[in-house]
Fold this sequence. Notes:
The protein is an alpha/beta fold. It has helices spanning 39-45, 94-97, 138-141, 144-154, 172-183, 196-204, 218-225, 241-250, 271-276, 289-300, 319-328; strands spanning 2-8, 11-16, 27-37, 56-57, 61-69, 81-84, 87-88, 108-109, 121-125, 129-132, 164-168, 188-193, 209-212, 233-236, 256-259, 280-283, 310-315, 335-339. It folds into two domains: 2-143 and 306-339, Quinone Oxidoreductase, Chain A, domain 1, CATH 3.90.180.10; 149-283, NAD(P)-binding Rossmann-like Domain (Rossmann fold, 3-Layer(aba) Sandwich), CATH 3.40.50.720.
Amino acid sequence: MQQAVITGPKSLIFRDIPNSFEINKDEVLLRIKRIGVCGSNILVYHGEHPAVVYPVVQGHEFSAVVEHVGKDVKNIRPGMKATARPQLVCGQCPSCKRGHYNLCRHLKVQGFQAPGVAQDYFIVPKKRVVPFSKNVTFDQGAMIEPAAVGAHATGRVSSLRNKNVVVSGAGTIGNLVAQFAKSKGAQEVLITDVVGYRLETAKACGMEEIINVQKESFEEKVDEVFNGKGFQVGFEAAGVQASLDVLLKHIEKGSEIVILGVYAENPRVNMFYLGKHELKVIGSLMYLHKDYADAVKVIDSVEINLRPLITNHFPFEKYDEAYRFIDQNKDEFMKVIIDM
């Protein structure tokens, strides 16, 4: 069988590997069905991701069918639909021992510092496998990973209940963060972007309040949406300086801003202003297993709407074409899915 491998910036090749597997007693053999392409993959493709190691097999958000299980694996059976966390952790460092293994000192992520799942079959330890309902499609299953990012990020603040929220960046992650914020009890959620297509997709997903910050006044829209009460939580999901600046400038004093965006260049922050306003700027990295469980739950119960987000499919043999399509159509798609 073949693997899709990025060997360097804008260089994707297919590599042949043996189609035979031996699994240990605590492992699961998955037959990969769908692979999602995310913004971080695009940074890898362009040589702009700050933590990638080339060459690297692609694929970290995916859906699959359980093909075979080791003799010690319980509650997971062949034929079940599943995905898995792509985090490889040591289990021994202080972060891991505190249960914060997403912050492992030796963290490697499949598709970035470790081989991803872009091949027909893939072996995963049982502890990282996340089964999902037969009611969830394989396309939706490939969205569990980005949904888990949203679940984790919205859990990083002290509370969302009855608070006003601004999400800066209406790409897939920003969209999912906004939907999770609503599901966790936010009073009002305003999502911003500079691309009309993304904002219209947010509306199709049920987000009523949107603003194109290139065409409208952010300050006036905030006043209108929040009835002059301002906003107390911000999520920066665009990864650009201007996006961070507008949140810092307009959020209520003493409030919280969560950073999800991956910055190609480090932003500048006025630390005097930050201190004077007692703002809390909070990092958010990936997810924990419980965030995957939360994502599966809300997808299965249709608390969040994924269908408008899945816009394009490419067959596995056209993996490189999918990346070129993304480059050429940056403002006209949301989630690209690779079909195995």
